[in-house]
Amino acid sequence: MNPWLASFEISFPASTVDELLLALVVRDLVYGSSYDVESEETGEQFQVDVTASDEVEDGKYQLFVEAEVSGTENRDLAAEFLEQVLEEAVDEAEELVTARRPLAVRRCDEIDFQAVTEDDERWDLVIPDWLAPEGAEVPFGFRSFLAGTGQAMPSDQELDAAGRVVLVPVEHEIHFVAIPAPEAEDACAESGAD
Known about the structure:
Order of helices and strands: EHEEEHEEEEHEEE
Strand order of the largest sheet: 1-4-3-2-11
Number of helices: 3
Largest sheet: 5 strands, mixed
CATH topology of the largest domain: Alpha-Beta Plaits
Structural class: alpha+beta
Distance between the termini: 20 Å
Helix content: 10-25%
CATH class of the largest domain: Alpha Beta
CATH architecture of the largest domain: 2-Layer Sandwich
Number of domains: 2
């Protein structure tokens, strides 16, 4: 049975720091997640690997989710499971955002974004895809630096001290916000799908 792709797009409001922060945390939670699923109703087993990308347009945050599904041709079952994954990600993101800790606010022109080597990638740094410089791998192949000095912002030490640092660009400012690290994903998931 060949793997197949399921994709969908979700829109979030993004006119305030809090709204965009929530959307970016949801993207961080779903990106790169993998699930071994067993339907509670049918016993059917399948695997799901999820990636995500994003953009902002007209005050709306667009989250593009793509899932590679293998082990089943039942598209309704897979879609129901993916909807459950997204709902749980939104719930968890809301909890993480309530525990946020503001780190800094900088003008957009004070921050440069540069591609980094794989050794310098930080999975605990969440930056919107649209801020990536040309040719950089998203979402982790680039970082933010102070313009002029080339100093990483946030530094490795600041990242180590926080669970995650999320960069939230709103109007002419970038807000650096620390949130707790997400809970470890369970390797197995069950779906109540029919």
